[in-house]
Structure formats: structure tokens, C-alpha cells
Amino acid sequence: MLMFRRNYAKRCNTSSKFKLLPEYKLKCGLEIHTQLKTENKLFSLSTNSPFSDVDKPNYHTSFFDVSLPGTQPILNPEAILFALRLSLALQCKINMNSHFDRKHYFYGDQPLGYQITQHYSPFSNTGKLRLFKDLDSIEEQTKDISVIQLQIEQDTGKSVYDSADSITKIDLNRSNVPLIEMVTGPDFTDLKQIRAFIKKYQNLVRHLRISTGDLETGAMRVDVNISINDYARVELKNLPNTSSIASAVKYEYSRQVNMIENGEGDKLRNAETRGWTGSETVKLRSKESIIDYRYMPDPELPNIVLTSDVVDGVKDMLPVLPDDTCMSLMQEPYRLSLKDAKILTINSNSRDELYTHDELRKYYLDTFEAYRSLCERHHQEFLRKLPANWIIHELLGNLNKMEITLYEICRSLSPEKFAELLLLISNKTLSNASGKLLLAHVLNSFKENSFAAGKPLNFLELIDEFELQAVADVESEGLELICERILAEVNNDKMINDIKSGKKKNSIKFLVGQAMRISQGRIEALEFETTFKKILKVSW
Ligand SMILES: Nc1ncnc2c1ncn2[C@@H]1O[C@H](COP(=O)(O)OP(=O)(O)OP(=O)(O)O)[C@@H](O)[C@H]1O
Ligand SMILES: [Mg+2]
Ligand SMILES: [Mg+2]
To answer: What is the pLDDT of residue 176?
Structure first.
């Protein structure tokens, strides 16, 4: 037995890098619960704010949310609209006549005694989400993940264990928050696909503005079902973030392979549900012992009857989906790299307070157009890459560093103004280095003046004031003099020899840096690099 275990550990190299073994095929399906950010709860007029007022338990509740006898559910149509947006974006078949069912179980944070969900006739089914090799970093060119069904249901309350008093307290702020449960087919065959799907689905719900999609708060919760070859599935729950999902999948795959190799495969014949402790999966229950939920149609709620007008209307109003936007940014006239196109398309949640990808994309597109027409007007060569380089790398870098929002910047440095800066760089009034200095200065002074409306920005005046004019057409003797001076100052034969031989090509950047310092950035770095190479007779 021990031999088998060592054998497996060796082959899948568990200690360093996780590897799937070809003879043990991974099969995996996901169930994802997503809280909808509607104004009100699913069946009541309570505010739907499960994460605000954490210090006020049972604050966002109505008589219905706390299950007072005699209260009745009233369906919130906004939740239907959100479910319709998501179903259409996932190319699902819409059920024009779905209904709600009661799923009975007893738990303290579910005082009704049942959860209102959709069991017999869910909202939509048979959709798909396509993953792409380049866009989603998967191995295959494309991979379709099928969506088996999508249903609307209510969230439960929360049980909070109070260790000081040794009692469990119930908070019903989350009770009756609208949820969508989306179930995929068992189509995943490796971890990259699982990671890619979760990220893509999260980005989609954010893009459709139907959920925050945050895993950390529990606004999005992922259950992973795993099996190997033809054994039964194991359902994994309590996976609070992407790294626990990945670790749990790796752990569970290895556990199941070990069991099969140790001759314990029979124990994998029955489906079970396991939880993730942070370091291992532990059995919660077996699927057979699951209680009978005694599903029954909810008699207090009418069917959700849709007309094709409503469905078509929502379809027409869907925003362009992130993949399509990303692909169009990589084509004419923008021809962005995949990396830059993704930055303008995919929600970067961590810096959401400074800019959203939608704002940033709009700023980029407007600047691109303004710069293009300025170039035409001034008969200047249009450098297609300039707007992306300066917005995604320079501007964004400064926003992050100075902690200022794109929204505030837009008021003083509009895309039209930014295009003027780009024109000054492309017609060589400003060197790259001086352009960077000027941009940083402008942003900094906006910040210092708290973005108060002041004198309109005039780049030419600022260039004069700070003497930032690029030194154009520098005499080559002038350049050579500066370079010779630096070589003498540096006085490091070893470094010079390593540059000449090509052993340390990068050291030339150090010399260029010194030259830029002396010329205060007013001469292009490339000019210095060429001169150094000439003086040192570099042949690489
Ligand atoms: N052999 C298998 N291996 C891995 N995953 C599987 C396998 N068979 C089914 N699945 C996945 O298991 C999941 C089943 O989810 P579904 O919601 O239908 O049932 P459930 O887990 O019993 O219900 P509940 O919502 O009460 O948890 C799907 O994501 C499906 O793709
Ligand atoms: Mg399940
Ligand atoms: Mg399920």
C-alpha cells in the first residue's frame, strides 16, 4: 500500500507541482450561487443590503423575512430581469412559464421551515459559456462549458456562534436575498478550466451589473463536484476563495487517486458531500442519507410567465459582452496586445475605487479618437500605440501611486487634453522622459489643489515654464561628449567589457540612465543607447 502511495506521489509530483495523471481522468461540474444586487429582497420590500450595517443584526428585515405566520411572499420583478440578463448572456433556453417550489428542511436560520427555490420548472436551461486559449489561459483552443440549468431562489439567514455566551445567534439580514443558482455540466477536465470559468463567470455578473460577484463576502459561492474515471461524484462545499477552490480540487483529486491505488475504490462508489477545512477535505454527509426535501410547488406564488416581447427587449439591451469587446480592441484600428485589451475589458476589482474597466476603456477610446483627429489636422504621423502606452502604463501607474480617481482626472485632463500631450510627444516637442515628468507634475498639482477648477491646462506654457523642450537634432558630437564623460566618470572596465562582449547587455541601461540624468531627460534614451553602442563598438 505504502508502495502505491509513494508511486503516485512520485508520478504526480505532489510535493512540488500538481499534475493530473492520464489514467485517472478528472471530471468536474460547478454549482455557483450568486447574490443579486437588486434594490429590494426577493419576496419583500426590505432593503437588500446583506453586507452593510453588520453591527445591526436583523435590521434589513420585514415580517416576511423573519417568517411571521400569515405573511406572504410578493415577487420582486427586478430579480426576474437580472436572471433574464444572465440567462441570455449564457445563451440559455428561457422557460417562458417557470414556477417556484418549496424545499423543506429545518434549520435555525431558515425559520419558514422551507426555502423557496425552483426545482420542477427552473427559470432557464441548456446554455453555455465558451473559454478561449488566449483570453482565458486554458490549454485547449476553445472549451465549451455547458450550463445545465439556472434557477432563482432565496438566500437563508446566518447563524453566528457566540463563544462568549456559548449560544448560536440568528441574523436574518441575509434571509430572502435573491440568489441565482447556476449549474454546469460535468465538463471540466483540468484545474485551468475551472479557474478560468470562475473568473469569467464572476466578470460576467459584474459586467451585467447584477451582482458584486465577490467570493470573499459570500456574494458568489462555488461548490465543486469531482469524480475520477467512473466513480461517484464528491461535492465540495465551504470554499471561500479562488485559492481554496484550487487547493481543495488538488487535495480531493489526490485523495481519490490514492484510494483507488490503495484498493479502496469501492468507498468511492457512493456520492458524498465534503467540506474544506483549509488543509484537507472532510466528510459532511453521504448523498444517500440526504433528507427528503418534500419539494412541492409554492401555492402562494404565481408562475413567472414571460412573453417573447419582454425576452427580446432585454436581449436588445444587453451590453456587448467582455469577450467581444476584448477581441474588437485587438483588431483594427486599435490592434492592442491581449494583455492591454484585457486591462480595458476585465474588471479589476482591487482598484475599483480608482477606476473601473468601463471608465478606463471609454477614456482610452475617446483619447484614441481625439489624438487621431489632432494628427490629421496637424499632418502628423499617427502613432497608433501611443494612447494605450500612455493611458494603460503611465496614467494608470500614476493613478495607483497617487491614489486618485480617473473620474477626478477627467474633469481637468479630458481625453482631448490627453491627446494634446500625445501630439507633443509624437511631434517630438517633448521627449518621452519629459512627457512622463510633465504628466506626473500635472496630476500632482490637480491633487494638491483638490481638483478645483483652475486655469485651463496649457501644455506649451508648462513646457516653457519648466524648460522641458526636447533637445531635437542634437549634434552627434554633443551626444558623444556626454557619453564619453559618463564612461570616464563610471570608470568600470569590467562593466564596459561585459557590455561589449554581450555578457551583460542590460548594463547599458545604467549608462543611458546616467546620460538621461545629465540631459534632464530632454534627449531620447534611444539616442544615447545608439551613441554608447557606437563608442563602445558593440556588435550585438
Ligand atoms: N460524475 C460526475 N463527476 C463530477 N461532477 C458531476 C458528476 N455528475 C454530476 N456532476 C455535477 O454535479 C452537479 C450537480 O448539481 P445539482 O445542483 O444538479 O445537484 P445537487 O448537488 O444534488 O443539488 P444541491 O443543489 O442540493 O446541492 C453539477 O454541477 C454536475 O455537473
Ligand atoms: Mg450540489
Ligand atoms: Mg445544486
So the answer is: 97
* pLDDT interval class at 341 (50, 70, 90): very high
Task: Mark whether 178 and 243 lie in a shared domain.
Answer: yes
Amino acid at 191: L
d(CA 495, CA 492): 6
Residue 233 beta carbon below 6 angstroms from any ligand 1 atom: yes
Domain hosting residue 445, numbered range: 322-465
**Residue 187 near residue 212, CB atoms below 8 Å:** no
- Residue 211 to residue 217: CA distance in whole angstroms: 12
- Using a 6 Å cutoff on CB, does residue 183 contact ligand 1? yes
Look at residue 244 in the predicted model and tell me its pLDDT: 96
SS3 letters across 176-201: CCEEEEEEECCCECCHHHHHHHHHHH
* pLDDT for residue 15 is more than 80: no
For ligand 1, pick from 24, 27, 31 the residue to mutate: most ligand atoms within 8 Å of CB.
31
Q: Which ligand sits nearest to residue 186's alpha carbon?
A: 1
Q: Are residues 231 and 372 in the same domain?
A: no
Contact 118, 100 (CB under 8 A): yes
pLDDT of 360-418, one tens digit each?
A: 999 999 999 999 999 999 999 999 999 999 999 999 999 999 999 999 888 889 999 99
Q: What band does 479 get if pLDDT is binned at 50, 70 and 90? A: confident
Q: How far apart are CA 501 and CA 504, in angstroms?
A: 8
Nearest CA among 492, 491, 482 for reference residue 528: 482
Q: Please tell me if the CB atom of residue 225 comes closer than 6 angstroms to any atom of ligand 1.
A: yes
267 and 391 fall within a common domain? no
d(CA 450, CA 254): 56
